[in-house]
Write a structure and sequence with these properties.
Blueprint (H helix, E strand, L loop, with lengths): L7 H16 L1 H10 L2 H26 L2 H9 L13 E5 L8 H6 L1 E2 L2 E12 L3 E2 L3 H10 L3 E7 L6 H11 L10 E3 L8 H19 L4 E5 H7 L10 E4 L14 E8 L8 E6 L3 H7 L17
Parallel strand pairs: 1-3, 3-5, 5-6, 6-7, 7-8, 8-9
Antiparallel strand pairs: 1-10, 2-3, 3-4, 9-10
């Protein structure tokens, strides 16, 4: 019996058919969608467009408004709190050399910069390297000025108060002393409160005016909300929101750390005062100036 052997061409064709048959519908779909270079380019472009719209949806509808506001602030689009006209800044050596003449002429949301709070001391031995020059220049250019101490939880409050009083000499018309409390370290809440109150009491005895307490919103609620602190003016840090979240009484609100002010290179903290110019002057040491002829209590 003679057997006819299939040709190589037929065998190869059969293998291709078998291979194609094995892929079935998946192969046909792949060929339909990506069978040419132009189809591949189309799908790459479509994918990029879809990702772009997903990004916009996530950015403007899903993520918190505070995060969104910070992202916008990075590109100079800062949202200012509505209903406040008394604006100020706070500075330290991080702002470098400041052109105080330009700062005094600067506008924030079309309103002048009225006050500045300057870092003075920290712990028991750190004096901000630019404090003395900044403090002098602020007064020379007519700004209401203040000086703050950064509280260290590793040093007794009384020791820190002594150091602040040794380095800082406030005058009539200056804002009350300011204590910046942001960290608890290894202290319990009660220990922190005790040391902070020691600082406040010693400094108040010297200037006969309750010091201002600066702190973040969450830190205030967690650590400084006992009745012992109710008599002190609070300066609350709460960024990128339309209204400060603290429900109690407050005097100052630090609403962004990405502000831009003429005379200062780079970002600077922006603040508002919760009241009128009359109120701000009467918060200062020695009760400040008497109201002008056209200025009445409660004017904004």
């Amino acid at each position: 019996m003679t057997t006819t052997r299939p040709s190589r061409k037929k065998t190869a064709s059969a293998r291709r058919k078998k291979k194609t048959k094995g892929k079935g519908w998946l192969a046909r779909v792949r060929h339909l969608l990506f069978g040419s270079r132009y189809k591949q380019m189309f799908w790459v472009a479509a994918g990029c467009i879809i990702l772009f719209y997903v990004f916009l949806f996530y950015t403007f509808l899903i993520i918190p408004s505070s995060v969104r506001s910070r992202w916008l602030a990075l590109y100079g689009d800062i949202s200012y709190p509505a209903g406040y006209s008394i604006h100020g800044i706070d500075v330290s050596h991080h702002q470098g050399r400041i052109d105080w003449r330009r700062v005094a002429e600067a506008k924030v949301n079309d309103e002048p910069v009225v006050f500045v709070i300057i870092k003075a001391t920290e712990g028991k031995s750190l004096l901000d390297e630019n404090f003395n020059d900044n403090f002098y220049q602020a007064r020379e250019y007519g700004l209401v000025r203040g000086a703050y101490h950064y509280f260290s939880p590793t040093v007794k409050g009384s020791t820190q108060a002594q150091y602040y009083l040794h380095q800082v000499h406030l005058d009539e018309g200056d804002l009350p002393p300011v204590l910046d409390v942001e960290e608890r370290g290894h202290l319990t809440r009660e220990q922190l409160q005790h040391e902070v109150l020691e600082w406040l009491r010693m400094v108040e005895e010297c200037y006969n005016v309750p010091p201002i307490i600066y702190t973040g919103l969450k830190f205030k609620e967690a650590n400084l909300s006992t009745p012992d602190f109710d008599r002190y003016p609070f300066w609350i840090a709460h960024y990128y929101v339309k209204e400060v979240g603290y429900k109690g009484e407050w005097r100052f609100w630090q609403h962004t750390d990405l502000g831009q002010v003429d005379g200062i290179r780079g970002p600077v903290d922006l603040n508002i005062y919760n009241g009128s110019m009359y109120d701000l002057r009467h918060l200062t040491i020695g009760k400040g100036e008497e109201p002008q002829e056209n200025e009445e209590p409660g004017d904004m």
